[in-house]
């Protein structure tokens, strides 16, 4: 277990000032609930309004700064993230319980976003088109909306905020960032790095707190765009609150019931590895984690045996030990939720292959550790556990007979975030590509592992059509048409006449 470090003193960042060092709530390590990571202020309604006002005040100056100079701030940020990679990964592992190897990969993912943003600073920002009128030049240009609220989850507490802050700031918006109340320390560390990199006061403001702080932020009409990743229920609430505001864009990434489909011609070992990584990396707590592996009936018995044996061997333990496969779930509430879904699976007639439950891998400390729960379930209507998101190490193996049936099973959930198909057949691959509902699709891979220069989003209850990471530029800017006449008289498109009886006065 980690050496106990002094708790982080949480503060808000508003208009470039660090403020409000109150002890309203604590962040605990899920691997050891006796370890306090830090104490934090829950932002008041007045502080939320102040943060939005600070972002609004900083907006005109930031928007007028050269895009290339804005991008260069991200180059400095990249150097700081490289300098601090180990410390950031360590803090993240302690605060959210992900294994240190995964935390390192996440810091690298955040770095990649920052590098991507820096690189795109000198790339084209619009389009040049032709006009019907030879003397006219026509451009499509992007403009920032203004203030972007960034509300992010605990499971990717560094990379996901950067997926949102990066494109928003590059395009000239200013931001108010509220990290999850389960990972405020790593969120605060990120904002400290923004400050050190020289982002001007007010461009990145930080609020801490629970859903009530998020709600006050979303209700503030000074916010133009809300970028959110989290549960469907919260995403729906944000969209409802936003519906009455003009000029409000919501980019929401929400739940999932992602899946791996193992076809009859699958490479067997690859299929087992893909299923295990998809189901149990991050203890099943990625939004793209597979809650289902849909397996051809000719393989299911052999697959179930290999999958269960492998799942039993996975080591869940101290996040700081790189030899462990994964760490705890985020808190006691998550333990309760996963255990209740394990119980529900049995009630719904599942055949349990690996009996998961609470474990205590670290002697002398109480953490939120769960071992994998694996079961076989037939595709039947009204089985909740194969349709609802569990967000923990809980995987259903479901047999299918035909590819058409596999698609039906895959699509038979309210979500549509990510899927993988394991096949050697290009016809089959194409069939699943076209028939399944998803935002990220993979072939002969796990259904986790997206890269930052791709859009990251989903359909149905998983997303509202505004993907994150590289895709976010479309949500944080609006496109403008800009037409310039180089002639000395006015000529209109569509043959519209410009004759004014008697000429201009
Ligand atoms: C998430 O699941 O919340 O695709 C984000 C992946 C990571 C990001 C996951 N690059 O697995």
Set out the fold topology.
Elements: E1 8-9, E2 12-14, E3 17-19, E4 25-29, E5 32-40, H1 45-64, H2 67-83, H3 85-96, H4 100-120, E6 126-129, E7 136-144, E8 147-151, H5 159-170, E9 174-178, H6 184-196, E10 204-206, H7 211-219, E11 225-229, H8 232-243, E12 249-253, E13 258-262, H9 268-280, E14 290-296, H10 300-313, H11 332-347, E15 351-354, E16 358-359, E17 369-370, E18 373-376, E19 394-400, H12 403-411, E20 415-416, E21 418-422, H13 426-435, E22 440-443, E23 455-456, E24 459-460, E25 468-469, H14 473-476, E26 477-485
Helix pairs in contact: 2-4, 3-4, 4-5, 9-10
The structure holds 2-aminohexanedioic acid.
The site of 2-aminohexanedioic acid has 9 residues, from loops.
Quick recap of the structure?
A seven-stranded mixed sheet has the order 15-18-19-14-13-21-22, sandwiched between helices.
How would you describe this structure in keywords?
alpha/beta, 2 domains, binds 2-aminohexanedioic acid, 5-stranded parallel sheet, 26 strands, Aldehyde Dehydrogenase, Chain A, domain 1, 14 helices, 23% strand, Aldehyde Dehydrogenase, Chain A, domain 2
User: Over the alpha carbons, how many angstroms does the gyration radius reach?
Assistant: 25 Å
Q: Total helix count?
A: 14
Tell me what the CATH architecture of the largest domain is: 3-Layer(aba) Sandwich
Strand order of the main beta sheet, please?
15-18-19-14-13-21-22
For the biggest sheet, the summary is: 7 strands, mixed
Instruction: Say how many strands there are.
Output: 26
Structural class: alpha/beta
Q: What would CATH call the class of the largest domain?
A: Alpha Beta
Give the uncertain stretches in residue-range form.
none
Question: Would you tell me the overall average pLDDT?
Answer: 97
Task: Name the helicity range.
Answer: 25-40%
In whole angstroms, how far apart are the ends?
A: 85 Å
- CATH homolog superfamily of the largest domain: Aldehyde Dehydrogenase, Chain A, domain 1
Beta-strand content estimate: 15-25%
Q: Count up the domains.
A: 2
Quick one: overall form? Answer: globular
Bound molecules: 2-aminohexanedioic acid
Q: How is the CATH topology of the largest domain named?
A: Aldehyde Dehydrogenase, Chain A, domain 1
């Amino acid at each position: 277990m980690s050496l106990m470090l002094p708790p982080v003193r949480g503060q808000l960042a508003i208009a470039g000032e660090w403020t409000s060092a109150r002890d309203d709530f604590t962040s605990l390590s899920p691997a050891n609930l006796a370890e306090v990571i830090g104490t934090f202020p829950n932002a008041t309604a007045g502080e939320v309004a102040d943060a939005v006002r600070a972002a609004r005040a900083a907006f005109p100056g930031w928007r007028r700064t050269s895009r290339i100079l804005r991008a260069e701030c991200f180059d400095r940020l990249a150097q700081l993230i490289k300098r601090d990679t180990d410390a950031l990964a360590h803090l993240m592992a302690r605060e959210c319980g992900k294994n240190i190897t995964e935390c390192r990969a996440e810091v690298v993912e955040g770095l990649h976003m920052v590098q991507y943003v820096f690189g795109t600073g000198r790339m084209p920002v619009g389009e040049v088109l032709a006009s019907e009128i030879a003397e006219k030049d026509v451009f499509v240009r992007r403009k920032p909306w203004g203030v972007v609220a960034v509300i992010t989850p605990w499971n990717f507490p560094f990379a996901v905020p950067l997926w949102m802050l990066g494109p928003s700031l590059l395009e000239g918006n200013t931001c108010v960032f509220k990290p999850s109340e389960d990972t405020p320390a790593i969120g605060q560390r990120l904002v400290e790095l923004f400050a050190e990199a020289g982002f001007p006061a007010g461009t990145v403001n930080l609020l801490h707190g629970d859903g009530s702080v998020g709600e006050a932020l979303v209700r503030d009409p000074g916010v133009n765009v809300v970028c959110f990743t989290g549960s469907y229920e919260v995403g729906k609430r944000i969209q409802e609150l936003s519906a009455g505001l003009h000029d409000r864009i919501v980019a929401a990434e929400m739940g999932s019931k992602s899946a791996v489909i193992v076809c009859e011609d699958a490479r067997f070992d690859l299929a087992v590895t893909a299923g295990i990584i998809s189901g149990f990396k991050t203890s099943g707590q990625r939004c793209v984690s597979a809650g289902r592996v849909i397996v051809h009936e000719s393989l299911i018995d052999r697959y179930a045996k290999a999958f269960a044996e492998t799942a039993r061997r996975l080591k869940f333990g101290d996040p700081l030990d790189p030899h462990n496969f994964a760490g705890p779930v985020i808190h006691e509430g998550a333990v309760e939720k996963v255990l209740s879904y394990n119980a529900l699976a049995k009630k719904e007639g599942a055949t349990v292959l690996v009996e998961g439950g609470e474990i205590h891998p670290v002697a002398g400390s109480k953490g939120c550790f769960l071992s994998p729960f694996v079961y076989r379930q037939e595709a039947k209507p009204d089985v909740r556990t194969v349709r609802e998101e569990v967000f923990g190490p809980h995987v259903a193996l479901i047999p299918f007979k035909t590819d058409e049936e596999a698609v039906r099973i895959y699509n038979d959930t309210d979500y549509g975030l990510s899927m993988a198909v394991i096949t050697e057949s290009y016809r089959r691959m194409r069939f699943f590509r076209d028939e399944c509902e998803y935002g990220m699709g993979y072939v002969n891979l796990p259904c986790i592992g997206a890269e930052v220069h791709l859009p990251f989003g989903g359909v149905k209850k998983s997303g509202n059509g505004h993907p994150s990471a590289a895709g976010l530029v479309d949500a944080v800017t609006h496109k403008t048409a800009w037409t310039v006449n180089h002639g000395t008289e006015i000529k209109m498109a569509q043959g519209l006449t410009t004759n004014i009886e008697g000429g201009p006065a």
